Amino acid sequence: MRLALHWQIFLGMIIGAGVGLSLNATVSQRRWSSTSQTKLPPGMTSVTTLDSPDLIEIKIEGDKPRTLVVDGSRKTPDSVATLKLLAASDQDAHDVFFLFGRSPARRVGDLANRLGRLFLRMLQMVSVPLIVTSLLTGVMGLGSASRLKSMFGRTMAYYLTTSLLAICTGLFMVNAIRPGLRGEQSAGQQKPSVGDNLSDVLWGQVNNMIPQNPFNALASTSLLAIICFTIAFGVFALRRGGATADRVRELASAGFDVMMDMTMAIIRLAPLGVLFLMLYVTATQGPDVFRALFWYVLSVFGALVIHALIVLPLILIFVAKRNPIEFARAMSPALVTAFSSASSNGTLPLTMASVEKRAGVDNRVSSFVLPLGATINMDGTALYEAVAVLFIAQLYHGHNLEISQQLIVAFTALLASVGAAGIPHAGLVMMVIILRAVDLPLDMQGIILAVDRVLDMCRTSVNVWSDSCGCAVVARFESAASKAAAT
Questions:
Q1: According to the model, what pLDDT value does residue 320 have?
Q2: What's the CATH number for 127-267+280-486?
């Protein structure tokens, strides 16, 4: 008997995590020294590397002797937090380490990451045409622009409400646990991300809604521009009416059917994709990533759990009139994939398929609510940013921020989360805006990089879960509106 898809994905996640942790525990350390036969970049005479779960050390002799350290905890002076940052600062050192210095666990993890990224690329391949065809099908299926207006209002009301609830949950948790006051951490000298101020970000979002070239927006995957242009195209097709509207409706429906078949074929590979992605994370990071920032991780994770397992299920029960357990079971393939990939945009095709095929939500609702939610509804990201900024403030000041400043954090986190892209680590860039709003040093952002990947996986799952619950809520009201109109 073949296992259901969600159990296959869950099993893939468990196997990937198990193999990755085993590799991390047994073959994650390696010392290497170059020999006379080793081909080194010009200017290097010898190189010695140490690869371990805690840090990576690269000692270079030659024209410019130097010692480079990659330390995710940022406790080592003059270190960088990730290999990507090492490549940005010293490409030659990164290349030598990549070719010769990696431990067996890191080599297997990097290979698994490449294979897992192939699965994500296939999902990304179908995401834009699926969004266009499904959104156009949904708009044309409404039959009138007035129904679109009502659906948009309900959708935005849900998104703003749940994001505010998520931020309030995060503020409650970080004030209760006070993770930044439970021990000393070293922020190091991490170079901060460069971000715009809040007004620039919001104005940039308005600009992004109006593409200069819709075809360029499709090619560059500018989701907000794609969504706005597709909705506008559908609205004017409805206003045109007659044979024109019928042809647009038939073309969109045919394209959507083809894209759904292609998406379902790719989704069958989800167990393997999840396995490889989990293997990569656990093989290269291991379980020790939580120790240095335990209380911070506990605050973020606890707040995400409360929002995902209490707040959103209560909304499902009392507003959407759905059973949360059954709905979560229907959405489990999308939730597990979101956790392993840390990308709500990449998971969007699977989310749409699960909502429609497994949860029974009308395509006219899901095709509108989900693409919009993947772009602007970031409950998990908003919650995480609020907790992270207050944690940094506690470390920096030695006490909690005043209530007035916490309100600024909450409001700024709500607006900044709208501008966050549905890709891994996007919340880190948007956090710069909030840090500036309460006059905190940007370099302290580096302290949370060590655990950001794991927390990113958790908050992405919450983002996708909130979008899915939004579908159920809007579908319930749309169904009631349709029945009232029929009578």
A1: 94
A2: 1.10.3860.10
